[in-house]
Amino acid sequence: MNPSMDSRITRWVKDHTGELLSWAYHRTSDLKTAEDLVQETFLAAVERLDSFRSDSHPKTWLFSILNNKIADHHRRGMRHRTVPLDDDGPSAFFDEQGHWRPNAAPGAWSDDDGHLLDDENFRAAFLDCLKKLPGPWHDCLTMRFLKDITPGTICQELGISATNYWQIVHRAKLSMRRCLQKEWFDTE
Amino acid sequence: MKFVPSILDIPCRRATELAEQRLHSPLSLADAVRFRFHNSLCAACRRYAEQSLVIERLLRQHTVAVPDPLADGNAAEALTETILKKLP
């Protein structure tokens, strides 16, 4: 690498690591993963420096590399953390006519004092349940609330169709509901 | 729900899907009517819709207010150093 390239990359690392890290963190909810992805981004940038056109903005270019890394990361999660839909799909909750199976129908959630959402222990139970979800379900549920992200974008990142996206949200919510019922409300 | 006109008759599975969709975009008039009608007769789906909303609030809180380990900038600074060392 010639010295001018070297200093250019060094400047980019100094200027953009913060923003790239913040973006990667919000997209993956995991700091270690985010750090790895940003590192990989810069290493890839060094390798591909020839393909960087000097009239484009380095930040845009770096973000496009990072977004590909994030998409790869989510796809890997898709393969490794997917629950087979056949085994544990909505048919676990609904019978052939689409009615609740007797043991799956939502029970009451008591919130006597109306402060459920402020209860630290309940929030912890919620986070435990969220962590148990397969990767794509987790991402579908959480990424919807990030700024500038629409369901369409998430689908693109995860490589799933829009119909599939809603099915996943529905399925993930059913799981979350069942988990909270079991871990919190039924044990009170 | 034997006596329900077939145009209004949706199964619980569909009613819960609609409960999710309406959190994000308004339902078509027909679906909105089906949803309300179904839930007026079905306690389980009524609970589902309420509980789904609770989960939705929790998710929003969690995502928007993720305790941000990046807030003080230390993580970014440390990573910048690490990367600079690793560059060829």
What's the short version?
The complex is a heterodimer of chains A (188) and B (88). Chain A has 8 helices and no strands.
* Overall mean confidence score, pLDDT of chain A: 81
Distance between the termini of chain B: 70 Å
What structural category characterises the helix and strand content of chain A? mainly alpha
- Span from first to last CA of chain A? 64 Å
Q: What about the largest sheet of chain A?
A: none
- Low-pLDDT stretches of chain B: none
Largest sheet of chain B: none
Question: Measured on Cα atoms, how large is the radius of gyration of chain B?
Answer: 23 Å
Which pair has the most extensive contact? A-B, 53 and 41 residues
Q: Using DSSP, what is the number of strands of chain A? A: 0
- Domain unit count of chain B: 1
User: How do the helices and strands follow one another from N- to C-terminus of chain A?
Assistant: HHHHHHHH
- Average pLDDT metric of chain B: 87
> Which of globular, elongated, flat, extended, rod-shaped describes the shape of chain A?
elongated
Provide the CATH topology of the largest domain in chain A. Arc Repressor Mutant, subunit A
Helix content of chain B: 55-70%
What labels would you give this structure?
heterodimer; A: 188 residues; mainly alpha; Rna Polymerase Sigma Factor, Chain: A; Arc Repressor Mutant, subunit A; 8 helices; 66% helix; B: 88 residues; 0% strand
